[in-house]
Design goal:
The protein has 13 helices and 17 strands. It is an alpha/beta fold. The protein folds into 2 domains: 123 residues, Nucleotidyltransferase, domain 5; 196 residues, 2-Layer Sandwich (Nucleotidyltransferase, domain 5), CATH 3.30.420.40. Strands 14-15-11-10-9-16-17 form a 7-stranded mixed β-sheet, sandwiched between helices. It has a 6-stranded mixed β-sheet with strand order 1-5-4-2-7-8, sandwiched between helices.
């Protein structure tokens, strides 16, 4: 695919993309060439295709090679192990690249925006796992203005495949051990022995990385509302939650949530959401209405955070990127709320908002940092 960057880069740039949904991009001039997306670089066939694609672009003699800052992504490892002599290497933060990719599609060079980056996982500059980020940024730099309250992922990646762990963690933060007295089918079906093991892991600080991911928040709520313990693939439960929400009449109200002013920005606190969801489940409210209320609540979170950020920054352009925004219901609700407040909302036009667009963002960032 070819994308017009809207300006001419000073040096040829090769971008290696992400780990999952990987694309490789090259730019020497104003046009960015993107490779087809690969599912996952863990697969030997996909990684072989990745290497062949990179080598093909290396023949064009890039001066800069950009890659994701996560040290475990195979694309970045390949750069550090094999491409040190091929060009000047530049690590790009995951969510900055997300917002930059959407800016590039919308021709926002030399502009500063409020970026909303919602996804499953991306390494933050504090070495925690980010994924619900509010950034003030341009191509050259970004500043994290707000984020979701982080929680430990009990068992790391295992929490993605078993989202009951996420749901129980949020309920524990909301209720403590009193959560076991809640009248809920989800609680009755939960395995207390497994939870005890996870609590000991957490207390010992073993294999429980902190995450501020919106994707994981969707997983936790979906586990409660859908009464699902397992997910066959990342995002499966979130897709089902959106489908359920679309069956609602749309007359449900949003839930309450907190916004805490921290030393380094605003923190969204969803604990009130879980308490109200548990009340609605106990009242036997229709699950489709609970699902819709949650979607509306996340849209309200975006609106309230952006109003606070606009008051500080005087910026009026909101840029959405990250895999969570594949949720069309959330996009529609958030866009309507922001437009009513006078914001100009930018979304991806031709590329997906998931990690397949990251290499374009890496090109945009690298072009302004060298």
């Amino acid at each position: 695919m070819k994308i017009n960057l809207g300006f001419k880069v000073k040096k040829p740039i090769l971008a290696l993309g992400s780990h999952a949904k990987n694309t490789v991009a090259f730019c020497d001039g104003q046009t960015v060439s993107l490779s087809p997306a690969l599912r996952d670089l863990d697969g030997p066939e996909e990684f072989t295709v990745f290497i062949k694609t990179v080598r093909r672009f290396l023949r064009k003699k890039p001066a800069i090679i950009a890659y994701d800052a996560h040290p475990q992504y195979r694309s970045g490892k390949y750069a550090l192990e094999h491409l040190l002599k091929e060009g000047s290497l530049l690590a790009v933060q995951h969510h900055h690249a997300h917002i930059a990719s959407c800016m590039a599609e919308n021709g926002l060079a030399n502009q500063k925006v409020i970026g909303v980056a919602f996804d499953g996982t991306g390494l933050g500059v504090d070495n925690t796992l980010w994924g619900a980020e509010f950034l003030v940024c341009d191509y050259r730099r970004f500043r994290r203005i707000g984020h979701l309250r982080p929680i430990p992922l009990l068992g790391a990646e295992q929490a993605i495949r078993q989202p009951w762990r996420l749901a129980l963690m949020w309920l524990f933060l909301a209720y403590g051990e009193r959560m076991w007295s809640l009248k809920s089918a989800f609680i009755k079906e939960a395995d207390r022995k497994k939870w005890a093991v996870l609590r000991r892991m957490h207390s010992a600080g073993f294999n429980c990385p902190l995450s501020s991911s919106m994707g994981r928040l969707f997983d936790a709520v979906a586990a409660l509302v859908l009464r699902r313990q397992e997910a066959r693939f990342e995002g499966e439960l979130a897709v089902q939650l959106e489908k359920l929400a679309r069956e609602s009449s749309g007359k449900s109200k949003s839930y309450h949530f907190g916004i805490i002013r921290g030393r380094q920005g605003y923190i969204l606190d969803p604990l009130p959401i879980f308490k109200e969801i548990m009340l609605d489940l106990n009242r036997r409210q229709p699950p489709e209405d609970i699902a819709y209320s949650f979607h509306l609540t996340v849209a309200e979170m975006i609106k309230r955070m952006l109003l606070k950020i606009r008051n500080q920054s005087r910026l009026n352009k909101a840029v959405f990127s990250g895999g969570v925004f594949q949720n069309r219901l959330l996009c529609s609700l958030a866009s309507s709320l922001l437009t009513a407040q006078g914001f100009k909302v930018m979304m991806h036009r031709n590329l997906s908002c998931n990690d397949s667009s990251l290499s374009l963002g890496q090109i945009a960032v690298a072009s302004h940092r060298h």
